[in-house]
Design goal:
alpha/beta, TIM Barrel, 14 helices, about 450 residues, binds zinc ion, Urease, subunit C, domain 1, eight-stranded parallel beta sheet, about 25% strand, nine-stranded mixed beta sheet
Length: about 450
């Protein structure tokens, strides 16, 4: 028997731990994990000296398609994913139209399906929308739903009453509710203070959007969710106080999970002074103490998910913020650099390789109903694999990125640890620094029942 691919000699992260093994791939699936006697293959990939991981499942990206082609599209965004070892992206609902109806959901699926190089899923929107629409979007394959509490995205912002009702419904449908936990009321009032104080400098974004905005919103969501059976997931956590709440809710037996990104793990509010609007994100960057708490929570399990929150804007849009920080939108180009930056963190003993795989692949796959098809190297799973060289140095330059924006909040950062090959369902889509995947190869991922 000749199979399609054997990946040989790599140090492989399996659910049972890290071992030297050979992975046998045929027809897009992992059909063997063996120490020796592997079958003949059309292609043998020698991964000696490298680590072999399941492909990353990035459950929080904004690829801006359809809606904002000047910022990103599914082809450019998934080229970046391929180069960053991400084999499945799950796109947020704030596209245009927002994915809050069956029609918008299906249209998005047909538009981006022709462009995606990697597998993809969608989050539905759960703002002030009829429950009938949530049911339909769920049926159509949304892996989860997202609500904002701030009014920034109209159809996606929910009042407390709506939130409670949607939580009840999503508990019934067995789909997680992801929340952008910032209090609209507090954010707006602090904003008035910033304007009254005449502040327009980058630090104002952090000072006038303090942790209490996030802490109050997290507590409110946890309180409402406790009345229902919903799985509540708090997106992009930044504040130690919010981590305490999630930890407490988990200890009380509530189904609450947390997520964070490299933005908050690697930057603090001091970064605003250096990088200005490039580092502007919502919620904003916090203190060193908050950052330490995030690392602790990521390692002890309180925070179970790492996601990029890739949210690109154009250079022109971002640079407006150098004069007045409030003229720059919040969000940045992150997807391609998340894995290298985290491999560097592994090299610096801030997290283990096994834990990185859990938070950036296994847990997001599970949470979005894609496990065991995605999220681990195991028999019968899709052959979504990223081979990494832990010794390969990187020096981040916006101009070298695959996304259409040649800017990054991580400009000039250096480290060690790079994905060198990415496979999606047994197809090599990134190799030798080149993205060789084809638009349209990526397939829509329906969550498993
Ligand atoms: O910084 C952010 N950017 N936070 C969000 O919640 C939305 C995102 C975006 O879509 O730009
Ligand atoms: Zn958000
Ligand atoms: Zn986001």
């Amino acid at each position: 028997m000749t199979v399609d691919i054997v990946i040989k000699n790599g140090l492989t992260v399996l659910p049972s731990g890290i071992t030297q093994s050979n992975i046998v791939i045929d027809k897009g699936k992992i059909i063997g994990i063996v120490k020796s006697n592997e079958p003949k293959a059309d292609r043998v990939i020698d991964a000696a000296g490298k680590v072999v991981l399941p492909g990353m499942v990035d459950m929080h990206v904004h690829l801006r398609d359809p809606g904002f082609p000047e910022r990103e599209n599914f082809e450019s965004g998934t080229r970046a994913a391929a180069a960053g070892g991400v084999t499945t992206v799950i796109d947020m609902p704030n596209t245009v139209p927002a994915t809050v109806t069956l029609k918008a959901f299906n249209e998005k699926k047909s538009i981006v399906g022709k462009k995606s190089l990697v597998d993809f899923g969608f989050i539905g929107g759960a703002g002030e929308v009829p429950q009938k629409d949530i049911r339909e979007v769920s049926e159509a394959g949304a892996t989860a739903f997202k609500s904002f509490l701030i009014a920034r995205f109209k159809e996606l912002a929910a009042s407390d009453y709506t939130l409670l009702k949607h939580m009840e419904l999503l508990g019934e449908l067995d789909k997680p509710l992801l929340v952008h936990a910032e209090s609209g009321v507090l954010v707006d009032k602090f904003m008035e203070e910033a304007v009254a104080a005449g502040r327009t400098d980058p630090m104002a974004h952090c000072e006038f959007r303090p942790p209490i905005c996030e802490i109050e919103a997290t507590m409110r969501c946890v309180t409402l969710a406790a009345e229902t059976d919903v799985h509540l997931h708090i997106c992009h956590m930044t504040a130690a106080g919010a981590v305490d709440i999630v930890e407490w809710a988990q200890a009380m037996g509530q189904n609450v999970t947390g997520e964070t990104s490299t933005n908050y793990l690697l930057f603090t509010q001091d970064t605003m002074k250096e990088r200005g609007p490039y580092a502007k994100v919502d919620p904003p960057l916090r203190t060193k103490d908050d950052q330490l708490r995030l690392w602790e929570a990521l390692n002890d399990g309180t925070i179970g998910v790492l996601a990029s929150d890739h949210a690109p804007y154009t250079k022109e849009e971002k640079e407006r913020g150098f004069d007045n920080i409030y003229d720059a939108p919040s969000g940045g180009v992150v997807i391609e650099t998340t894995l290298p930056l985290m491999l560097d963190a592994v090299n610096n003993d801030k997290i283990s390789l096994e834990r990185l795989v859990e938070v950036f692949s296994t847990n997001p796959a599970q949470m979005n109903g894609l496990y065991p098809r995605k999220g681990d190297i195991m028999l019968g799973a899709d052959a979504d694999i990223v081979i990494c060289d832990m010794d390969k140095a990187f020096h981040i330059k916006g101009e070298n990125l695959q996304t259409i924006q040649k800017i990054t909040p991580y400009e000039d950062m250096k480290g060690k640890g790079m994905p060198v090959m990415t496979l999606v369902r047994g197809e090599v889509i990134f190799e030798d620094g080149q993205v060789i995947g084809k638009p349209g190869y990526g397939s829509f991922q329906m969550p498993l029942e």
